[in-house]
Fold these 3 entries.
Entry 1:
Amino acid sequence: METNISIRYQHHRTGEPQIYILQVDLDFNASSSFQYLALGSKYYLTMLDDGLGLYLAISALVVAVLSYCRKYRLNLSRSPLPPGPIPLPVLGNVLSLDSARPWLTFNAWRSTYGDIIYARLLGKPIIVVNSEEVAKDLFERRSSIYSDRPQSIVYEAFASDFNTGFMPYGNRWRLHRRIFHQAFHQTAVPAYHATVLRSAHKMMFSLLRDPENYPNHLQMFIVTFMLSIIYDCEAKAKDDRVANAITRYGKLIVEGFAPAAMTLMETFPFLLQLPSWFPGATFKRASLKCIQAGHDVKEIPFQYVKERMSANDMGPCLVADALNRTSEEDDVTITAIKEAASVAFVAATDTTTNTLLVFLLAMVLNPEVQAKAQAEIDRVVGKDRLPNLDDGPALPYLEAILRETLRWYPVVPFGIPHATTTSDIYNGHFIPKGVVVFPNAWAMTHDATKYPSPDEFKPERFFQDDGTLNSDTMRLGFGWGRRICVGRHLVDASLWIAMANFLAFFSAHKALDEHGMEIPVAPKFTTGFTVRPETFPCRILPRFPDVSLKTLTRSTNLGEKL
Ligand code: HEM
């Protein structure tokens, strides 16, 4: 902050009017009072005349201004950090934390410390936001401060430095966001409805033929429509080079980003410097594989699109559309297109598959909810066709199930961490520059004052007394502000289509043991950055005894092609 102060006075001997300009340059971006003291206040005094009295007067003024500013600065830094548990030396709060599910610990700490909590994990300060109100204040109203991402040496080592979700706030990130926005903004998404519906129908064939393999079929649903939307590519046989490049990369980064492995690599970066032949250099070898897969995931699908574009054999898709808008010399944008395309895949596949698994689990555990939704579909859609998004407004209970699925078990429960670009004071709390800020989506979706009995799956909570849906469209799991999920509109459409078609055609039940007794399901969830229900025994049956492959073939026009 730079301030000019001009002082007018009469010269003590000549009586001539004089001006002193005092330029005070203060750095308010320093992240702590220590930095303030170290940086000090740089001030420059431009003397247009001299005189001892004046020197004294000016010096007094400088001291006064500086001490005022220092006091202001110290007041800023004296503001306490947000409340939180007392950290141990070196370890910080690690021992009191459920490190596999930190969102649960911070949710439990909410009653003691409140909606914004400060903690230290192995010397790293973090801030956790537990409420929607604080999240809106920080990530939306103060988005110029809270839109950065923390950086890690693991990103580059595991080919994720080009992932939009981990990228620092800046021009490269902006370019990615623009490419995503063009493809996935709210009014662009209806263009994909037909593709998504077709993929849902394919998924139903697979579920009918091989119900036990349901996690794979749900995942293939997403892979199929994403391949089409991004590369105009059909998922074909298992040796498909495009699908293989994507699946391989996805698998390797999930392994690389296992929280324990990440912590080890961040704590002991030399593990990534070891030569790959070195005994025990597991991380280095995994990193090299991942870097190769990261190269392939950008290049192989991209070359596929280029080849088809030059043969004039390309339909609309994210990559072709973006290339058509870009000059051939614009290497920066071309690289961003390759990167954004593969990021879309990674970002969409696990998250959407996991949400469908949560839905399926909820249906198995809550048969009365499933029956109610099916009755609604039968009443509105009938039994002779399958639902499509035009039926949406007439199926409010289905919409409530979708919202409740997103609320009951958000699949990115601790969000993607944000980071601050400058220090801040929020509600009297000092928020340091560069601190990592986690939006605790779990705490927000399990706030008992907003969602009574939050662990129960109750779609009814989204209805008002007059029987219409309320305005809570359950956005809490999609993040905030400038970094909000770019795929959220596509997610809404694809989840709706999958759920509606599944419920119209199938029922999910508990599996039976050899005596015909239902096997109880005790829900268990994986841990990590994204979470999903662990595979649970489940019987997926067509709802109507006369419904067969033939009926499905007739109502989808697909059958024989599959
Ligand atoms: C159920 C499915 C999904 C969930 C729950 C989900 C959730 C999230 C969350 C929590 C964030 C972080 C937001 C923040 O930092 O505040 C995010 C970011 C992101 N999502 Fe999604 N997502 C889903 C599906 C998708 C899909 C289908 C796509 C692509 C079409 C996508 C692309 C992205 C990208 C590129 C980012 C990074 C945004 C940035 O850092 O600027 N996501 N998502």
Entry 2:
Amino acid sequence: MSKPFRRSWNSRTAPGGETAARLVAAALAWALCAGFATAQEARPAGPEPEGMAWVPGGVFTMGTDDRDAHDSERPAHKVQVRGFWIDRTEVTNAQFRKFVEATGYKTTAERPVDWEVLKKQVPPGTPKPADEVLQPGSLVFTPPVGKLPPGGLDDVSNWWRWVIGADWRHPEGPGSSIDGKDDAPVVHVAFEDAEAYAKWAGKRLPTEAEWERAARGGNENWRYGWGDSFAPGGKRMANTWQGRFPEVVEDEDGFPRIAPVKQFQPNGYGLYDTIGNVWEWCSDWYRPDAYRLDGDRELTVDPKGPAKSYDPMEPYQPKRVSRGGSFLCSSNYCTNYRPSARNGVATDSGMSHLGFRCVKDVEPAR
Ligand SMILES: [Ca+2]
Ligand SMILES: [Ca+2]
């Protein structure tokens, strides 16, 4: 393991006793760090929590310097996380239903829209939309029929539509349902909905670092969660989009829309659909430059993300990170079906391609 904090004490040359004090402090930090890593590597004894898999703690390479990656994924840097349990699958409709039945929880998409809250997330001076538009709903993928309208791929409103009445029970809007879709991932859950479920389940949302550690499946240098070839031997490894997004969908992986969980091979940690199917909320605030905020520190230990979000593309919207890409990720548009790919989503936004999975810390020894 490389030494943490080396740059900070190399770059400050303090005289005499102060230097000695710094060296002692650094040595202590190093010793604590080394002990922490060793103690957290092993899988705890006993049965695994239901539906969860163990991801060992340790140091891994987070992000990438791949020239084809997005700028927000750079630079590749060393990160250390503790071991943790993680759901093997995205949280399903059946699991989310149990939570709602037990608690009476209403998701963000089912609650009245408060313009006083919403107007803080749009540019100042934005006029209030008509009351008939400010109704409970969510964003539904609605592909264009025929040719892509003006704006092309630069205008996401060409395929995202605000649908009044869309929520987790009605993923395509009124008239749609999740009947027969118990094993599909729940969608149209805003960040606080995902957090509420996690808390009820005795779990939490993963940090971005934990999520990436898990999605790499123990092979940190691979471009994808399963190797460097997207479809090894022609075999599809995840539910993504084939065809020219968003107008043409081809059915090569068997699922033009969301798939039930566990339809593709699990990764090296036994996790399904980390890549593709639906995006997954993480607990970190989103900034595209998050990795550059730490400077060139040699090792970042258990990062939890920036103190607040900032996306220059949409500066008024608080955003959290989502990871893994979805059934909408295509080679001609986002290529976000890679473990290092990052996305920021407005915290109050439900979408028809966004879900989550949870993690659980090791129980402290008694
Ligand atoms: Ca697909
Ligand atoms: Ca996923």
Entry 3:
Amino acid sequence: MKQIFFLFLLISINLFAQEKNCGSILRLNEYLKTNTEAENTRSKLEKLTADFQFQKKVNTTIPVVVHIVYKNATENISDAQIQSQLNVLNEDFTRSNTDAFNTPTDFLPIVANAQINFCLAMQTPNGKPTNGIIRRHTTEEFFSLLGNKIYYDSLGGSSAWNTEKYLNIWVCKTESGILGWSQFPSGGDPETDGVIIDFEHFGTFGTAKYPYNLGRTATHEIGHWFNLFHLWGDNNCGNDWVNDTPIQEQANFGCKMHPHTSCSNSGDMFMNFMDYTNDACMNSFTEGQKNRIWASISSWRIGLLTSNGCSPATIANSDAGIISIIEPNNLNSNCASPIYPKVVLKNYGTTTLNTVIIKYNINGSNDYYQSWNGSLNNNETDTFLLSGLASTGTTHLLNVSTISPNNNIDINASNDEESIIFSSINGEQVQLSLMTDNYALETSWTLLDENDNTIDSGDSLANNTLYQKLYCLGYSCYKFVINDSYGDGFCCNLGNGNFAIISSIGNIQYAQSVPFTFSDTSYFCIGNTAINEKNTTYKIYPNPTEGNLWVNQEFESDNTPIFARILNSLGQIILSVEIVNNKINLSCLKNGVYQLVIQKEEQEYLHKIIIQK
Ligand SMILES: [Zn+2]
């Protein structure tokens, strides 16, 4: 007799499987078969659940992330359809569902408001803003109940968000006959902990298909996720571990008339969400089920209570940008090297801007970076100079942008950058610094080009005064002449007169003062122009040289030793030798411009030389 009945049950289940099937129990049992430790944990959980008395007085809201894993456009259901499912969950778990009045009167004493709300997640586990919906295209035809592909990006599914902090719901095409399944507390691995719903049984419109078209599949599966069993305990008059639900013989399908009795009860609670009836015919959880739900939330799923997934992401309101470039401008020609951009920074953000990185370049290459520090309130601006950068050619595109305001991500990148096209003179900016002595009226100076045309000059100077002037000098050679009408130079007994000509970029020292009496002339060249030798006391050649430099002393006939000193661009002595056989070996020097000082007794003669190997 027993065997006959068992056979009947199998046939029945097969028949019903055509209508509705939830895979949760099968998946749970498969998992526990090979995971005895999980089974022990579940036993402890059941012990705790049996002792649990619901104390919670306020509602809680559980963050939900919905993974839409679709193969075609139909399966890629709309945001609105997803929201319709969230609405159903919020109604069913707070007993605010409009069909609650359908509950038969004799069950009213046991039905419950489970006091649970759900939200589509507003922030990701990393604190970024989100709408709580992930969409992933897959090549899988469908996802099978006992497979795990749906749970992993790498397998054509979608990887779960932290399952302790979020309810993960995957919506996809499930294997035929299965409406969905979920994972019980301690009923599987953390990465697979969530709920799967077939795309034709999610939400209340769109792809939702009668008779499981009112979102109750998700209500039911989330019930399992909260540790609820089917009312018939998946057994003939089995146990669902809830005291107030009537024992019932088996699953109910379709819609039943109350009372529909079995197992000596006074009526199956076929309208319970944990039965198998049509969506339109179910409407209740019970107090006993609520107690199990909250026992699971208070133990295995306690992480939900501290999840911030339902709170908006609190990103810093950091938004800065360059609003204009004042210099260089497209009205004047600018010295090609260096360019000193003058820019205006604005704080668009509501938080005070204290630091930002300025990135700039010419013609899109060789990025320069400069940090700005200060304090700008919302909508305030600051105008400042950037460090110089070199440019070649005559027309240029300068780009200036901001990065990392207050070390955060800029929430609006579209206002970060400003650009300007400008023209420039082929040349380099140099600075003349001249300090006078106690008798400045004796001093005068002239800056000349290589054809002895005067570029600038100065006299009638004030005592002990620093004069600084900027020039844009083209790529050519120049000389700077300093005179003292009294013939005692301007250094160092009566004051400390001196001068230097230094490039604005790279601090190359092109000329500097040496002791003189009435006059001294310094020669220098800008760019890679060969030096035109102007000093006729000694001829030196070749210049540029690869290493050996010859010094012609044809006007010298005595045997007085002659010395040579080589100075680098900073004026530092890097080589000091006696000139023997008219030759200096400079092969140890790197390529570059140097000063050669030839000294005979008290006389010194300055040359510029270029090492070019
Ligand atoms: Zn189920």
